[in-house]
Design the sequence.
């Protein structure tokens, strides 16, 4: 079981893509499209983990769907949403810290949660329950819930589609034209090339998992960040390309992050779907609640607290351990510094002066380098346990 | 089959050399990736 993995160098993923091209893509006006896609998503999981555990995944999806309906339509929505969120977070903690639950004998469930990348599913579940609780839209059909929670092309590592984005997609996707097919194929080819050629070369040539110390350690931090971008954005490229091919909207996840000139801009360009999730579900709710409490008198402080809460929790999403808390603290402090520095510059130079200052190419280059280094150093926390 | 055949001819609004260059690039990228693909090489963010 521990060997099961969504591996793009093996056939199940590409077989699922071929099946999606044949079965899902042509069904642009078919009422069964949603069910065909749902069965394909489930079939992909069965290919990975077998019938018995595949049935467990289906059972989990049915429970999540029933909970979503209860949250949406029950008169006791508050109780149901607390139960649904509690269950989602409980399973998330089990996924991240299986050693805390040894008494429950969950040996078989833990690898399953890892295979289906439950961390990403948990974020989608929270989006779904929140949308149901706020009654922004109707509860989904079972097939739609499966397609939202575990689309095969986004299963391994996102992007994390927002529920509003999912339901806003037209029921009838545009027919597949030669132009779309070409751009999708190009995107997929670009992704696999990035992963299996460029990232592979950097990994083989430069990365040692930080086992070498001294000056090389500094070089490795830079190379790791470059490798991470190639590796991660490769998966997003493949997912977006597949989405285009089969007519399923798959959000973009990266936008030239190395060109970010500060941490705020960085999070607008890096892992965009997670960044937007954090904004919608953590940062804005905390910031707005604090602004209301303080009558809007301390906006900078409210934003700072919002950054700290959001990024500490984002760190814990990566893993329930102190090194990820440090990662979150580093990113939160970067964001807070940028926010205060912007305020300081505006007070000192005026808005026109700030524009001139920011247009300076040397300042721009230095800001980009500083942002790059800050993020590169923050990634070191992935390798060191505190 | 018709769809596949159509894919081998330049799409509307694109020069034929541009189209075939794109196809060549796709084929080259896929071929290189196929030759170098290493099994059990998960994406880093799959670990989370």
Sequence:
């Amino acid at each position: 079981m521990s060997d099961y993995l969504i591996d793009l160098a093996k056939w199940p993923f590409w077989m699922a893509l071929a099946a999606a091209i044949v079965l899902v893509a042509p069904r642009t006006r078919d009422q069964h499209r949603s069910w065909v896609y749902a069965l394909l998503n489930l079939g992909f999981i069965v290919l990975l983990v077998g019938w018995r555990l595949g049935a467990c995944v289906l059972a989990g999806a049915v429970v999540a769907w029933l909970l979503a309906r209860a949250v949406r339509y029950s008169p006791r929505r508050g109780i149901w949403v607390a139960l649904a969120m509690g269950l989602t977070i409980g399973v998330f903690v089990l996924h991240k810290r299986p050693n805390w639950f040894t008494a429950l004998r969950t040996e078989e469930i833990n690898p399953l949660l890892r295979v289906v990348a439950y961390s990403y599913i948990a974020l989608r579940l929270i989006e779904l329950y929140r949308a149901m609780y706020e009654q922004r839209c109707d509860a989904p059909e079972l097939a739609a819930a499966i397609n939202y929670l575990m689309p095969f092309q986004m299963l391994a590592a996102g992007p994390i589609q927002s529920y509003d984005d999912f339901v806003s997609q037209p029921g009838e996707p545009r027919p597949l034209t030669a132009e779309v097919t070409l751009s999708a194929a190009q995107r997929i080819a670009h992704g696999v090339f990035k992963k299996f050629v460029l990232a592979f070369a950097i990994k083989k040539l430069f990365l040692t998992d930080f086992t070498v110390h001294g000056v090389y350690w500094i070089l490795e931090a830079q190379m790791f960040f470059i490798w991470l971008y190639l590796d991660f954005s490769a998966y997003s490229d493949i997912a977006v390309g597949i989405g285009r091919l089969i007519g399923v909207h798959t959000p973009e996840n990266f936008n030239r992050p190395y060109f970010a000139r500060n941490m705020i801009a960085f999070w607008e360009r890096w892992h965009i779907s997670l960044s937007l999730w954090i904004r919608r579900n953590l940062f804005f709710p905390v910031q707005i609640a604090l602004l209301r409490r303080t009558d809007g008198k301390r906006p900078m402080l409210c934003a700072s607290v919002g950054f700290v809460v959001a990024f500490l929790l984002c760190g814990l999403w990566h893993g329930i351990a102190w090194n990820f808390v440090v990662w979150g603290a580093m990113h939160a402090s970067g964001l807070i510094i940028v926010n205060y520095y912007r305020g300081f510059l505006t007070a000192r130079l005026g808005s026109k002066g700030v524009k001139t200052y920011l247009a300076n190419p040397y300042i721009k280059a230095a800001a980009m380098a500083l942002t790059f280094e800050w993020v590169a150093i923050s990634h070191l926390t992935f390798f060191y346990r505190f | 089959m018709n769809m596949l055949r159509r894919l081998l001819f330049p799409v509307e609004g694109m020069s034929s050399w541009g189209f075939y260059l794109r196809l060549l690039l796709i084929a080259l990228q896929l071929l290189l990736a196929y030759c170098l693909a290493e099994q059990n090489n998960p994406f880093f963010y799959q670990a989370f």
Notes: The CA atoms of residues 25 and 31 of chain B lie 10 Å apart.
